[in-house]
Design goal:
alpha/beta; Udp-n-acetylmuramoylalanyl-d-glutamate--2,6- Diaminopimelate Ligase, Chain: A, domain 1; 2 domains; 10 helices
Length: 264
C-alpha cells in the first residue's frame, strides 16, 4: 500500500522543493505522511468546492498547484475560509500536498507543458543575462522561450492561445497584424518578466495577471503581450500530474478537478 510520503517523494522527483522561490510555501500542507493512499484528487486550488468533490470521491490525498497555506494563520476556525477548509480536510482525513513554483521551475513542469501546448520547439530557459532590468537588477527566471514552426500574425496566435488553453476571454497588447515567431512565456502571474522576455528577443510574451503599467511597459518596448489568464495557464496540472502519477502508481485511482476559471 502506498503512503502520502511515497506520493510526495514522487512529486519531488519531478519538482524538488529546492526549486521553489524563497517566498513560496510548498510540500505537505495538511495530513499524516504515513497515511495510506488509494485515491488522489488533483486541482489547481484547494477551494471548498474542490475539497467537497474530494470528499465525495473518498480521496485520501489532494495534490494542488497553489499552496493551501501561504500566509501564516493566526487562528483556525469555521468563520474563516482557509480555517474552515483545513477543518474539513482534517475531519475527513485528507492530506494536502502543494507543488507551486518548484513545479513552475522544474524540467517537465508547468512552463514546459505550457510551451508544448503553444506548439513551441527549441524551448529553453532564460539566461542570466536576459533576466535583468535596465539597471542590471536580477529578475526571476521562471519561464521559457521557444519558436513557432511557422510564423503567424499576432491575431491568429491570440486565437490559437485562447483555443488551446480554453480561455473564455483573453487580453493582448500589440499590432494584430504583426508577424511573430519567437514566443516567451511564464505560467501564472508573470508581469515581472517583461524585460526578461524582451531581452530574450521574444516577439510575444504569454503570461497572466498583467497590470496597467506592465502593459504600458510592453507597449513602449514594442513587445507583444498576451494575458491568457492565471487559471488557464496553470490548470494544465490537472492533465499532466495525473499522467505522471499513473505511470508510477497504477493501482491508485486519480481524479482531476473540473473547476472552471473564476473570471467569466
Amino acid at each position: 500500500m502506498y503512503k502520502v510520503s511515497d506520493i510526495a517523494n514522487a512529486i519531488e522527483e519531478l519538482a524538488p522543493a529546492s526549486l521553489a522561490e524563497a517566498w513560496d510555501n510548498v510540500g505537505l500542507m495538511v495530513g499524516d505522511p504515513d497515511k495510506a493512499v488509494r485515491r488522489i484528487f488533483v486541482c489547481l486550488d484547494v477551494t471548498a468546492e474542490n475539497v467537497s468533490h474530494a470528499i465525495d470521491m473518498h480521496a485520501d490525498m489532494i495534490i494542488s498547484h497553489h499552496p493551501l497555506l501561504f500566509n501564516p494563520l493566526g487562528r483556525i476556525c469555521e468563520t474563516d475560509v482557509i480555517g474552515s477548509t483545513v477543518i474539513s480536510l482534517i475531519k475527513n482525513d485528507i492530506a494536502v500536498y502543494s507543488a507551486h513554483t518548484n513545479l513552475d521551475n522544474a524540467d517537465g513542469g508547468t512552463n514546459d507543458v505550457l510551451a508544448d501546448k503553444l506548439g513551441l520547439y527549441g524551448v529553453r530557459r532564460f539566461t542570466a543575462e536576459e533576466c535583468c532590468d535596465p539597471l542590471g537588477k536580477p529578475l526571476s527566471n521562471i519561464g521559457r522561450v521557444g519558436r513557432l514552426e511557422t510564423p503567424i500574425e499576432l491575431a491568429d496566435f491570440v486565437s490559437f492561445t485562447k483555443s488551446v488553453l480554453g480561455c473564455r476571454s483573453i487580453r493582448y497588447v500589440g499590432d494584430p497584424s504583426e508577424t511573430i515567431s519567437t514566443v516567451a512565456l511564464c505560467s501564472g502571474a508573470g508581469g515581472d518578466g517583461i524585460y526578461t522576455a524582451y531581452h530574450a528577443g521574444a516577439d510575444v510574451y504569454v503570461t497572466s495577471d498583467i497590470r496597467h503599467h506592465e502593459a504600458q511597459l510592453a507597449y513602449e518596448l514594442g513587445l507583444n503581450l498576451i494575458d491568457a489568464g492565471h487559471f488557464e495557464t496553470e490548470n494544465t496540472v490537472c492533465e499532466f500530474i495525473p499522467e505522471y502519477l499513473y505511470e508510477r502508481f497504477p493501482s491508485i485511482e486519480i481524479f482531476s478537478s473540473e473547476a472552471e476559471p473564476y473570471f467569466k
